[in-house]
Amino acid sequence: MVSVPVVLDCDPGHDDAFAIWLAAGDPNIDLLGITTVGGNGHLEHTTHNARVVCTVGGIHGVPIAAGADSPLVRRLTVADDIHGASALDGPVLPEPEVDLDPRGAIELLRELITGSPEPVTVLATGPLTNIALLVRTHPDVLRNVREVVWMGGSTGRGNVTPYAEFNSWVDPEALSVVLGAQVPFTMVGLNITHQALVTAEVLDRIAAIGNRTSEFAAQLLKFFCASYNTAEGMPAAPLHDPVAVAMVAVPEVVASVRARLDVELRGTETAGATSVDLHDKLGREQNATVAITLDVARFWDMVENAIRAMR
Ligand code: BDR
Ligand code: CA
Description:
By secondary structure, the chain is an alpha/beta fold. It contains 12 helices and 9 strands. The longest helix has 21 residues. The site of beta-D-ribofuranose has 15 residues, from helix 1 and helix 6.
């Protein structure tokens, strides 16, 4: 298989770290660049963390650029209850050995997408602010976007409010802009990422790989599982973001359906909730692919192999 050219927009974040390692380490993905957004932490933290994660993994030569520090119209609320004050609490964070690209996220995305001989997949594992800004500022780039694959939303209930998932809730207007752009769109929501649970067996397996990245990764997972246990009573935390990466690398690792996807912008109790019309009750045009079922064993094999490929 020829590798898929990908740009990864993220807000590291524990699970974003695994998304970066999987995107860099899977042979089916050609990681062109990484952009950061305010989400799990403030932009200075998520950007620093992206550089830390690449440093730990020995990922060099992939440009990293900082994007939006706040959502399109709302104030940023970070997820420090899950990710800690640094957004990557747990291990001691080394000084980054990879530089920040001075172009900024939107310009970097524009150049990488328009410069690619093959259409590029935009993978997003945070609020969609940067992607909405790209769509608004440079709509022409969409001609060379194969699809947007986003970890966010849910076919059911939420995780930050009863109805809204975090990435959707932080910037629902950005999701609305991207959905309105008529670009092929895939949602990898909580309904599937809650199948990727970091059990004790998974943690042991990652720790047993025995390289620097696995040691760092195991410390991240311990912190992440402890946070989820406190916040949601889930000692085996769902490792959301790499599920979206796995689906791009190996589409059959996920079973999906086509459906109508909309986002609630004005609800008094439901802002940021995704409306996924799985049974076509509304009779509207289907505008999204929605990931439903994960091949869990294959997913963890992919994560393990990618971490093994790091240093
Ligand atoms: C999503 O929100 C963030 O906390 C995670 O990194 C993931 O992208 C899960 O709701
Ligand atoms: Ca994320």
